[in-house]
Amino acid sequence: MSGVSPDLLALQVFAGLALGAVYVLLATGMSLIFGMLTVVNFAHGAFYMLGAYLGLLALDATGNFWAALVLAPLGAAAIGMVAERTLIRRLYGRGIDYPLLLTFGLAYILVELVRIAFGTQGLPFDTPDALAGAVDIGVGYFPLYRLFVIAVTILVLGALWLFLERTPYGLIIRAGARDPEIVRVLGIDVARVWLVVFGLGTGIAGLAGLLAAPLQGASPEMGNSILAEAFVVTVVGGMGSLLGAVAAGLLVGLVVSMTALVAPEMEQVAIFALMALVLLVRPQGFFGRAGLMS
Amino acid sequence: MRRDAWIARLTPHRAALASLFLLVFPLFMPFKAIAVNILIQGLFALGFNLLYGYLGLLSFGHAALLGGGAYACGIVIVRFGMPWWIGIASGTLAGMLVAAAIGALAIRTRGIYFAMVTLALAQCLYFVAYQAVDWTGGENGLRGVNVAGISLLGVHLDIVRPLVRYYFVAAFVIAALFVLSRILASPFGAAMEAIRENETRARACGYDIAASRWLAFVLSGGFCGLAGALQAIHLGIVPVETLYYTTSGLAVMMTLLGGMGTFFGPFIGAGVFLLLEEVVSLWTVHWQLLVGAVFVACVLFFPRGLWGTLLAGHAR
Amino acid sequence: MAESFTPPIRLTRRHLLGASLTGIVLSRPAIPRAQESPIRIGFPVPLTGPYATEAQDQVRCAQLAVDEFNASGGLNGRRAELLARDDKLNPGEAATRTLELIEKDKVDFIVGSLSASVQLAVNNVARQRNVIYNSISQSDQIDALPDWSRTTFHEAMTPHMTAGAVGRYAFGKYGKRVVFLSADYAYGAEMVAGFKAAGAPLGIEVLAELKHPLGTTDFSTLMPRIAALKPDILCLCNFGRDQQIAVKQATDFGLKRTTRIVIPVILYTARLAAGPQAYEGVVGGTSYYWGIESSVPSAKAFNDRYRHAYDGKVPSDYGALGYAGVRAVLAGAARAGTTATDKVVAALEGMKYDFYKGAETYRACDHQAVQSLFIVESKSKDMSGPADVFSVLATDPANEASLLSCSAEGHAS
To answer: Is the CB of residue B43 less than 8 Å from the CB of residue B223?
Structure first.
């Protein structure tokens, strides 16, 4: 075993950030949906997986990765909005258990539909030519595509922040998350806000799935394991807190990459150990509101 | 109101009625192994329901209690060559001990955070079992929990025979049903109900909320540990998947499907879920589609669960 | 997009019932009543989940073996019947399915499984009930005590055999400085042990031994470290999607510039799913590749029957094991003239056969199939069609010396 050089450490940090970027995107969508609708979305992993397959479809139809980058999240958002309107909407105000069970069932359905449509084996998803290969980032070679994933995540988070903080619609969403009654009294159509938020959350999940597809290919099960990890990130950051989702996503990415240096077989349990530790010290997560959902 | 009157009259005899049902149940089953699975999973869901249905605490770490019981029973039999009854006693005790430890850490959190702390601690236990290959068999699982014959009061029971195995397991499950009924009818049962209905008022009435929660968790662990021990003997193996979080998810799903907070709902939930899987998976490899659809339909049309809806007499 | 090479399978109860009914109707009335019941073979495989593609091909191949047996007249007119069941890749589920097959369906033999933990679970149930079980997935432990029993047979290769053959080829050819990256479970550990056993006499230098959790979807945290070590060979001791993703990401990190990627079991199906780009230049072992038909007559015959039955497609490696596993127990029953467990076990012990890949035999002490292994390299150009994915580099012949010794497995030799 060779020692750990500073260059290798720097590369590990980059690997952790790229990994964290996907977590951040998933947790942001999940937190948005939870904060606004108090729905613990068990189908979030399925929407992530849908993003990858919709990306394949878009790639097949247009032959253009950049078109897929736009179309796949829009497709996932559209499916999410249909699910919200037809299924999830009927459960608002019935506590967290029922939406949780419903989205669990929905995830089963979506995964199985993809198996029927695209087969059980999974499909290859090649890295787009313009982003293929590794580049020298000063400390060593790093895949260009992973740098691209970090960049897209930063752009999406920036756009989301502008949308929530600087547009009237964002204002309504933030107000709705805090007190839906008041928002309704003000004569605002809360139902439409819910629809938009669910679409936004699932759309971002779809984007994360599309971004992950060139890293690991597309498979029907790809959303299952990452769902648990996304939950951990959401909870550690504090349910409903977007800032928390970003901070916790990056932290979990770094914890995983640093664990990999010492004992890679502990990567997965490290995530859960981190969650147990955080919640025992600070039961509401980093930025969660105390007493929420108690 | 007639229905409510009937239910009220029958409630004191619920354990006896449930037991009667379990005694004739295998006659209607396609094969006995699945009937035994339903007994065991039903007992597991029943243990989970004690905490969730009667106290309102949603745990996502119950796999640790089932798995703890299964491994304790399996290890005692395989590694130490102990007789079956020590295995079952060890399993039940291990379930309670794991519950006591997880409960002590987790009861200070609430709601979704309680679910996540229990999930995280259970995952840590999964990892420990995964790595402790010499004791647990690791990912390969613990094999050789083979209890062939049982001598009881001079009678020899060959539990390799399917029906004998069913009634052997059923005897323990029925005993557990009577214990649960007793717990629910006790002052502690009343305390649990008071806490679930209104925590502030219960505290004002002098109930020690934290202690009650912890005790309920430990009792729940006893039921789940027993279920785990019975599963180890029934299947002859302890798969490491028993400790995985999907097992916890199964308890939640079966309980909600059957009806949370109902006495017999968990068994109905376990039965419907396992039979549905059984029948549909023979018919098509896409059985998960139907399972998902049933969950969605249940949530939308039977929010009290199947048994709960039947008891209430109407569907929302 | 990868060409989907599998026709969808539907296992209907009616189909299974229908098969058993025809079995009864077609048997000649002269045969005593007890003989009329078909020979039933329980076949638990993971029809759903990550290995569904492989498992469904196993069912297709197994059905082919049953159809051939029946077409050739069965066992004195007694027909065979395949009862495929979904074990969901879960040992508990597999144990339940096996109980069902034995207790309700009264099967004569069990063949199947596609993971070490599942086959050990199936074996545990079957041995306690004195039913012959022929395993068709890799494990060292199933051949060894205390898991092995007289009714246990192992048609698949073992990690020791596979890694040994691949190691002997690769260490001599590509270099001696090796990094192991293995999935953290028995399969990974057994493969690493097999490579090391083969490499020790060749003087290999192990630079690092890394383990990753089963089901890992991202290996980016391990690649910089492996790249920094600049090994001659990276041995990827993992399976299924873990393997596909690891190969792809090793390629992304540019590892192939300095390092040869070597895989003990290179799956035909995984290569189809991951595409030629990711697997380019990867070398691995396989128990079967349809392309050996140019030099192995039984492979040609098997491929042709499969092509005829399934729209001109070719069988996969793990699928072919389903064929061999089922055909072996049926051949054993034919030799014994009965399905009685003890007689069939005796008939199978030391049986020599060539079903699809050249000569094989079940070693007497542990019932392990002694067989050849093929070293292949993944193709990325000059492919004649979508199924033309490997070129065969070498054949490691069937040789008992490639197996773990009987005494090492705890058997009296």
So the answer is: yes
